[in-house]
Amino acid sequence: MWQFLKEIMEDRIEQILKSAEKEREANTSENAESINVSETFLIILKSSFEAVSLFKKDKISNEAKKRISTVEVKMNDLFQNIITYSTETGFDDIIVLAIAYHNLGFMYLYKEHNFHAAKDHFVRCIELLKGKELDRKAILTAINALYDLHNVWKNLQKLENCYPLLDKAMELYLNYTKEEDEYPDPIYIPAILYIVKERNLKVSLINLHKLILECIVRLYELEPADKHKFVIYVHNLLNKQVTKTIASIDKRVSIYWAKASFQLCSYLTYHDRFFEAKIHLAAADYMMGIHYTLMIKDQDYSASSAMHNNYELYRVNIALTWGTYGILLLNSSKKRLLQCESDKSCEANNTKSESPAKFEEGLMKPLIFVDLEIALENIGMPDTYVSSLDDAKIVFANVLKLFNKAKTYYTAEKALATYVEIIINISTAYKYYADFVGNISEQIKITKERIKVLEDAVSIVFVRCNTFGGYYHCRKLYFHLAVAYSTLLDMTFEKFYETKEITDEMRMENKRLMKIIIDNFQRFLKTTIKTTIKF
To answer: Where in the cell is it found (predicted)?
Structure first.
């Protein structure tokens, strides 16, 4: 996803730089406009830049530290005066004080590593700019302060505070630029006052936006569920790039587009928006087809084993995402069936994608690709809730096919961690499929197949238990085996209730199952101890 976003931002920078001379001529009068900064605030601004330059040196004298402390006292007095008598301070003076607070916050964060002092300065900067963020003179400082405050919280290991700041920074950028080619050049007062060197501020704004997006992508990969506006933003960018991507002869473009598209599925499936998830996965497949066509036409490219491996990697990862899609569809469908049993007005196979009720109206619009509607018409995997065993069987068969395909690429020898995750996903698919089977004997049969998948994997992974990774992954498989055998035991007990006479053989079988469950939990605990010791 990041590669796709990065390419778009770098393309925008290239376009800006191409027209830089023309923009300079157009903006000469704007740059010369009156800047009304009073002497008191101008001194504070210059002092804040001097403080940052002092902290670039290896050693700082006590006298320099005292000067910085004196500046901070004056800044705090001015801040209190603005908060108390807001109408008496000029707009430019407020912007200048916000820049000074950002400068000192920057110094404390990146030079002193005094995160609490940095936080206080960034918070004051943001407070001063509240309601003014979209002004040309404020936009850069406003986004910078949000980005740097996010870095403070990251260093303090308060990740829950990071995304709202990045989300706000992204929103400011979008509201300021409106995703158009033409928007006002930001104004940076210190550059106009010759305190710092002049630079292309549109480029600075995009570079800052790139930093914001890179951070959001990392957070999205950790936890996609709450990244509503980011998902819409990425989808809209994908939508705008569809025609260009199809027409492009640059092989990277289609593969970057495909990756970004299928990565949005983790958010969409989390919110049971299966129709949109299916569209994004199918679109990713379609773009990978375009990439392959370009690849085989280029002799140098097609001869490159590295490029072929990269193509196969993306193909397999899309297959994995399709498999996960199928698992989540089965699980959500079963939950919906149970819900419908208690709510007669509910439609078990409701075709509408669901979204959290708390979403704003703007976030509820279906995320689809109109330009690809015809190309994506015939897709095998369903996107409505599964309500019958026959439908569940189709989804289950597709899921097994996809994961088994991925397993041939991600072998235990080549990628142990991913191999184990695939096995666990296959086990989960068996579990959810069994929920649709009403016959207890059939459920037992399916669960035994699930157990065989896990046991076969254990025999492969166990030989690698001489490493930390081997122990860790064996541990996961032992746990899932214990749970699968527990499920089998529950089903066996349930079958007892249907049996008129319980034989000694049946009792022995139950004892055997209980022993296996205990053994697997004990193995799980032993490997847990070994992985802990390794740490």
So the answer is: Cytoplasm, Cytoskeleton
